[in-house]
Amino acid sequence: MKLEYIVAVIVLLFAGQFFYGVLANPDSEFGGADGAAGDLVSEISPGYEPAEPWFQKYLFEPPGGETESLLFALQAAFGAIVIGYTIGYYRGKGESNK
């Protein structure tokens, strides 16, 4: 029972930290590392033109932003299921050995 309280406090702290960051910076845009790296390269070398990857024609391009978001959400859900199953499996295995 004590472990559940500790986990709940940790989850609340992380959620509070997230909401504090969003509320403290209401007009900020949270960009990814790819955009920041591209901006830095453009700043250092203004004439740089990135090469087109040779495998670009073989990659699947989703038809829209919604599809890309759906695929990302499915990937996150699948990862959460795998991690949850693994943790549950080893916790159940540990409790059955007692």
Topology:
Layout: H1 2-24, H2 33-44, H3 65-96
Q: What report would you give on this structure?
A:
The chain has about 100 residues and is mainly α. It has 2 domains: about 1-50; about 60-98. Helix content is about 70%, strand content about 0%. The protein has helices at about 1-25, 35-45, 65-95. The mean pLDDT is about 85.
Biggest sheet statistics? none
Number of helices: 3
Q: How many strands in all? A: 0
Order of secondary-structure elements: HHH
Strand content: under 5%
User: What average pLDDT do the residues reach?
Assistant: 83
Could you give a short description of this structure?
By secondary structure, this protein is an all-alpha fold. The protein has three helices and no strands.
Keyword list:
mainly alpha, 68% helix, 98 residues, 3 helices, single chain, 2 domains, extended
